[in-house]
Amino acid sequence: MPVRHARDVGELIVGAVLGALIAFVGLKVIGGVDWPAFNSSNVTRALTTVGQVVAVAVLLLAVLLHRYGRPRWLVNLLSVGATAGLATITLGMPLGATRLYLFGLSVDQQFRTEYLTRMTSSPRLADMTYIDLPPYYPAGWFWWGGRYANIEGLPGWEAYKPWAILTIAVAAAVGVLLWNRMVGATRGIPIALAVTVITIMYASPEPYAAVLVLIGTPMLIPLLHALRGRSRAADGPVGGFRSGTSWPAVVAAGAFIGLSATFYTLYTGMFALTAVIMALYLIVVAWLRASNKAVPDGEIAGQRRSVILAIAGRLLSIGVISGLIALLVWAPYLWSRARSEPASGGTAEHYLPERGAILPLPFFHFTLVGLITLIGLIWILLRFRERTIALALGLTVVTIYLFCLLSMTLTAGGSTLLSFRLDPILNATLAAAGVLGVAELSRWAVGRFGDVRFVIGAVATVSAIALAQGVPGFLSTEITTAYTDTDGYGKRADQRPPGAESYYPQIHRLIREQTGRPADQNVVLTADYGFLSIYPYWGFQGLTSHYANPLAEFDKRAKTIERWADSATPDELVRKLDRSPWKPPNVFLFRYGADGYTLRLAEDVYPNDPNVKRYTVTFDPAAFSDPRFRVTEVGPFVVVVRR
């Protein structure tokens, strides 16, 4: 590895460690104070604003130091520290009085927390819910989160918030270094600031998605360079697979897409499609550039063939590298499918909210985000023929819109591609272009009106603060839910009476006493999936089919549960349990109802929106009136343990 590339990699590693340290210390400091709840006081929001202003000021200082020729290490140190600090204060301070992350333990965050709880329980790759199944959802972010929880000595659910904020802060630190390396700190720091704030606004509820946006946006430029070869934008793609290829760029692009595949399948598909679109664009450019009536047809054909084969080889190389990395988490599931193990009932693509039925057009919104993305769109259209970065960002925007249209088209066939989840990448990409557009406008303004750099810098700084301080308000619902949900210790962070989930610790102790087994050696049938998010019990059935592992056969399990509920006697129920094609539950956690013991289950009703219909299954208490079962009432719950 050349010295220059080794130094770049070293800087990224040091930056990641520094970002992690800043987030770790920052969260410890915030967690050491008894703050008022976000939903009942503005104190934490006020302190968030103070922290954001300080972070923006430090970033401004870093830009000025770079302009005045100060050492690169100092500029990078300040930019990494301020960017990681900005991410930490923007998320950590509003959540300072709760142990839960955005959206608490509700809806999607429930199954994500369950996954982290599973990976905390054991480093073995396993499904979040179902026993003896490999994971269907990429385990990368959750696996490392489990190791963080083990080091900190925290249960998985409690580690979720600090791990989410820490990884976002690390990704922001890496992102600013990548931008500084590619476009210089004068433009790189403002780009990283815009991308970081917008990513936190739109992607932070899915922390692993936010990590990929923060790193993936700058990595689009090396991806294009890897496919184009050793040439500048004006020279077009070059042939020579061995000699004309920038192998460091190929390795970096492949490693990033591989990392993405261990984190988030949807984003990986988008990045992979972007690489294909880039390759096709470069092939078309190469074909047209080779046209020359003064050159023999045979020579032109040879030139075209050389470039096309080189581009295809680079694309294949990126695919091989990323595929090998992806196998680290995907191999167990793919092996199970290759052995033709039964799979049914998984409906992850069966969701079409209103924003998934229209094209995202953020540049027509009358907000700061709308303004910066509009400038970005115009800049891309003006510069994509001249600038590598404009072409890379522009082809990504095109890919996202193609992805959206394909997703909408697939609705006719009863599925989608969940394209609405790509909004954060679109916004971040256009925002990065927008900052570059503002930089060009600034140069024009200086040439037209004289030295107005101070005015431009002041307006840009105030705009950055305005955008950043609006994040807590933008995420107010997500933050408030983290305070109103009952946590794993049975408490609400806003000090109000907790929900029925406050009985979970008592139920957990009861199951341990009656079974004599640790949680991860029990299979529980319950509709209270928050219980599985807090403790690493295996579930017989998942939250909904949309989060279920296809190998689990969600639909068949649902029918089996209904047949169990029809049992009138203990003998009949035991016989049905023993004939289950899957390991049957040895623990049942019901809600007590007027007609018996109830489970509130879910059924996929796509293409309706909402896409889930809840229905109740009721078990006859007489079916458990037998020495083979032990029944205990705990608050509104009924715990049944099979002896």
Q: Number of DSSP helices?
A: 21
Helix content: 55-70%
Cα-based radius of gyration, to the nearest Å = 27 Å
Q: How can the largest sheet be summarized?
A: 7 strands, mixed
% residues in beta strands: 5-15%
Extended strand count: 7
Q: Unreliable stretches, pLDDT < 50, 5 or more residues? A: none
What's the pLDDT, averaged over the residues?
A: 94
Overall outline: globular
How many angstroms separate the termini?
62 Å
Describe the 3D structure:
- Helix 7 (185-203) packs across helix 8 (207-228) and helix 10 packs across helix 13.
- The protein starts with a helix and ends with a strand.
- The longest helix has 42 residues, at 297-338.
- It is 60% helix and 7% strand.
- With 643 residues, the chain is an alpha/beta fold.
- Strand 6 (629-634) and strand 7 form a beta hairpin.
- The chain is globular.
- Strands 1, 2, 3, 4, 5, 6 and 7 form a seven-stranded mixed beta sheet that branches.
Question: How is this structure best summarized?
Answer:
The protein has 643 residues and is an alpha/beta fold. Helix content is 60%, strand content 7%.
Task: Give the helices and strands, then pairings.
Layout: H1 3-31, H2 43-67, H3 72-92, H4 108-121, H5 140-152, H6 156-183, H7 185-203, H8 207-228, H9 247-263, H10 265-289, H11 297-338, H12 368-383, H13 388-410, H14 423-449, H15 453-469, H16 471-474, H17 476-484, H18 504-515, E1 523-526, H19 530-534, E2 538-539, H20 554-565, H21 570-578, E3 587-593, E4 596-604, E5 612-619, E6 629-634, E7 637-642
Parallel strand pairs: 1-2, 1-3
Antiparallel strand pairs: 3-4, 3-7, 4-5, 6-7
Helix pairs in contact: 1-3, 1-6, 2-3, 2-7, 2-15, 3-6, 3-7, 4-5, 4-6, 5-6, 6-7, 6-8, 7-8, 7-14, 8-9, 8-10, 8-13, 8-14, 9-10, 9-11, 10-11, 10-13, 12-13, 12-14, 13-14
